[in-house]
Structures are given as C-alpha cells and as structure tokens.
Amino acid sequence: MKSKRDNIAEYILYLWQMEDYLRAFPQQAEATQELHELNEMMHREGITEGGHLQLAANALSELEDLHAQILDEDAMYRAALIRLRPSLNLLKAKTDRPTMSDIEACLVLLYQIMMLRLQHREISPETASVQTQATQVLQFLSRAYYDHQTEV
After folding, report:
1. Largest CA distance in the chain
2. Which H helix or E strand runs over 147?
3. What φ, ψ does residue 151 adopt, rounded to 5°?
4. Nearest C-alpha neighbor of 2 from the set 57, 59, 47, 51
C-alpha cells in the first residue's frame, strides 16, 4: 500500500482508486491481502456503493489541518493557492458538493484527470495547467507533512 507518511496526497488518491476498483471488480477482493482488507473495511463502513474509507477521510482531514496552518505561515503557498482558487471554485460548482475544501477539490481534480487519462480522453491545455498548479500545491503539502512526521 502507498505510504501515507511518504506522500499523503498520493495515499489518498490511491485509496480512492482502490475503492473504485473494488466497486467495479468485487470479485477481485480476494486477489491480494491488501485488497481483501480494504474490501472488508468498505463493507464494515458501509461504503460499497459510494463514499470513502475513514482512512482516506482521516488523511484528508490531516492534510486540511496542515493546509490551514501553512496558509497563514507561507506567503508563496498562499499565492499559489490564490492563483488556483478560481479554477477550484469552477470545479466545486460543477459537483454535488460545492462547499468542499480547496484541498479536497485539488484531489478530486487530479483523480478526475487520472480517470480521463485511463479512458484515453484528451486533456485540454487549460486543464493541464490547472493540474500542474494543483499538483504543486499538493506536493508542497505532502512534503510539509513528511517533514512534520519525521520530526515527531
């Protein structure tokens, strides 16, 4: 399994991908110990049809807490997020959860782009630019999370 400590954003995206995989291919739940355990968690948490594992929700919450802290402390991070915010607001407006956090919106954006790429669908230059910006924000947060975890 992806390591939360090494890259928390990738960890969240990985969990989301595995959730979708197990929903699409429930017969694969016994293919590996990891899939079996994730499938069991999904059943216990009642998210076999939709939603996210508590593991992913907790990691997202940790990332959002760190985001709030860094937003006040780092002017470059704040500027990057301000440049990205109009695109995130457009994305949020197109979802059934327009009040989701900016960090969750970044993750949703990257997940949707990943799904489009898996379907061999074209990504517009504008979307690619927003993807780069969102990736930079999440990379910054993931590095800060890693640094904080190695200090503890």
Report:
1. 48
2. helix 125-151
3. -75, -30
4. 59
Short-list 5, 106, 18, CA closest to 64: 106
Residue 18 has, within 13 A of its CA and on its CB side, a CA count of 24
Q: Which two tokens stand for residue 68?
A: 């709030």
* pLDDT per residue as tens digits for the range 49-71: 999 999 999 999 999 999 999 99
Per residue in 113-140, pLDDT tens? 999 999 999 999 999 999 999 999 999 9
User: What does each C-alpha distance from 28 to 31, 37, 48, 54, 132 come to in angstroms?
Assistant: 5, 12, 14, 21, 33
- pTM, two decimals, is 0.94
Task: Tell me the C-alpha distance between 106 and 24, whole Å.
Answer: 24
Instruction: Report residue 140 as tokens.
Output: 């910054």
Instruction: Give the tokens for residue 107.
Output: 């993750």
**CA separation for the pair 106, 133 (Å, rounded):** 9
